[in-house]
Amino acid sequence: MAALGRWRQPADRSTQQVAANGSKQHSANGSKQQLETAGGQRLVSGCRRLTAHLVAGVLQRVTASTGRCSLDLSTLEQLHHQQSYHHCCCRLSLSWSRILPAGGRGTEPNAAGLRFYRQLLQALQAAGIHPVVTLCHMDLPQVLQDIYGGFLDPQLSEDFVYYADVVFQQLGRYVRHWLTFSDPMATCQLGYGVGAYAPGVEKGAAGHYRCGHTLLLAHAKAVQLYRMKYQQAQEGRISMVISAHWGLPYDASSKADKNATDTYMQFQLGWMADPLFFGDYPEVC
After folding, report:
1. Sign of torsion over alpha carbons 230, 232, 236, 238
2. Which of 13, 31, 71, 214 has its CA 20 to 30 A from that of 25?
3. CB 180 within 8 A of CB 167
4. What are the tens digits of pLDDT across the range 122-132?
């Protein structure tokens, strides 16, 4: 009978994931006036007005948050301070529920929410900052979670591609790099498996993998839509951010430990990466 292999995680776990929101931002010439001429002051005042337009997403329901407007405000007010850092990129995530309050197919977009993001992207563009935009980073509209269980139901992929179509149409001229989702491990394992993250669903491995399958379907449909309808005119690219906890063989000379590590990494990384690169889930012995 073959011995069971063992794997271990590296001692320094800080290198296992890429920070999602660590980008700095800067204005065209580092002055407050430059930010204002790029629409910065209008954005700041607009953010305060937008508070009334924010709608509940699953993150807000779980954290009892009133929204991210304060973070948006802080971002805009700091643009003119960042010139000395010479950063040319800014990664940001859109709020699905701010753009589509009712969440799903055929519903009316929120003009105020779109206007806010349009002005933000224009300000970044005027400041020479290249936006890398995530369509959905866990912030699913609460209404879709309530109606059919969010990522547990494949029909979410249809609602997501409708949302993506609205965004590409309205904001695509300002964006050259799109990300459909960020960190599906957190969304699915922690959100729908163990319930530690929003929306706090505890469905175990079944919830984890049902969520992942729906997320992959939604990603594929949004990528197909972008490539067929928008990419040629907008000259952008689209992908997804995946992350994983890394594993190493407990004993590097042990074949069993190497096999165990490979199996671990397939469950950590292959379940998302293989469908993206090879079109199917990995085989695991």
Report:
1. positive
2. 13
3. no
4. 988 887 788 99
